[in-house]
Q: What sequence folds into this?
């Protein structure tokens, strides 16, 4: 029988149970994979336990990528990659972007008659 105010832990094969927060069911397995049972609130809001966020390096205010993989929703931190780009490549990309916006603005000007 569960005592009032205590959290339940999920039981997986040979678990090492670590209760993180009374609101979450949380387990750390022998493989080092953390799992949590989370509740989906209005508008699809889900709160990720601090231990899960820390394990993958997600900080408050950062963005995550959500994708469906094999029928499961997978969340992972959005970490921009730093790549080497030559100044000429940057200049060309900016020039192309400017030309695209100029074309769009010209089309809008023609549309409104100015």
A:
């Amino acid at each position: 029988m569960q005592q009032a105010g205590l959290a339940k832990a999920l039981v997986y094969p040979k678990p090492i149970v670590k209760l993180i927060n009374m609101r979450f069911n949380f387990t750390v397995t022998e493989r080092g994979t953390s799992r949590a049972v989370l509740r989906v609130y209005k508008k699809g809001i889900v709160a990720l336990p601090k231990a899960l966020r820390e394990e993958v390096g997600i900080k408050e205010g950062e963005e995550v990528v959500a994708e469906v993989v094999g029928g499961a929703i997978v969340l992972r931190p959005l970490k921009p990659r730093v790549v080497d780009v030559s100044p000429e490549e940057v200049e060309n990309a900016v020039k192309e972007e400017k030309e695209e916006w100029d074309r769009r603005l010209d089309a809008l000007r023609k549309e409104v008659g100015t």
Q: What stands out?
A: The two ends are 77 Å apart (CA to CA). The first helix runs from residue 50 to 56. The helical segments are 50-56, 87-112.
